[in-house]
Amino acid sequence: MATISEAARHIDLDERRFRELVDAGTITRAPRGAYEIDRVRTEYIRSLREVAAGRARTGELDPQQEKARKDKEYADHLAMRNAVARGDQVLVEDVVKALTDELAIIRSRLLAIPGKLGGRLKPDDRQAIETEIYEALSELSSVDSPDQVKDYATGRKPNQGRMGK
């Protein structure tokens, strides 16, 4: 049997650190002067093995792991910014805006066709062309919002509209 001082010295710790390990449950609490040296050593070695293997649950953040995680996030962020700057990647918001603008131009141009061809078409032909144009525009308008285009562009399935078909 050993005191806290003796048990701490046996595993090369100071008394303060030994008490912390007892409070944390790493070393089993014993009555005053009744620590079993072999048991203390075994519990301490097992806890060191858990820490070394990365399985220890201390409840605290590991500063080294947190720094590594932060560094990786920063590196990923920088890599994405560089890819955008080189033109290797584009922002989804930019693609959505460009597509929305292009769809507005297409709509306008399609609606102008019957008027441009007006005098050269028979009334039945003009009606057939207008019907086809309105059907095409109807399919395009089934994309309800830029968010739906964004969902499609990022691989998420939109809830409605032709783009998801």
Overview of this protein structure:
This protein is rod-shaped. With 165 residues, it is an all-alpha fold. Helix content is 67%, strand content 0%. It is built from seven helices and no strands. The relative contact order is 0.06. It has two domains: 50 residues, no CATH class; 73 residues.
Helices and strands, with pairings:
Blueprint: H1 4-10, H2 15-23, H3 37-53, H4 63-86, H5 92-117, H6 123-141, H7 146-153
When the domains are counted, the total is 2
- What's the alpha carbon Rg, rounded to whole Å? 35 Å
Principal-axis shape equals rod-shaped
| Number of DSSP helical runs | 7
Compressed to H and E, one letter per element, the order equals HHHHHHH
Give average pLDDT, whole number: 84
The span between the termini is 76 Å
Report low-confidence residues grouped into runs of 5 or more.
Answer: 160-165
Strand composition percent: under 5%
Class based on secondary structure composition and strand pairing: mainly alpha
Number of strands: 0
What summary fits the major beta sheet? none
| Helix-residue proportion | 55-70%
Sum this structure up briefly.
Helix content is 67%, strand content 0%.
Entry keywords:
165 residues; mainly alpha; 2 domains; 0% strand; rod-shaped; disordered C terminus
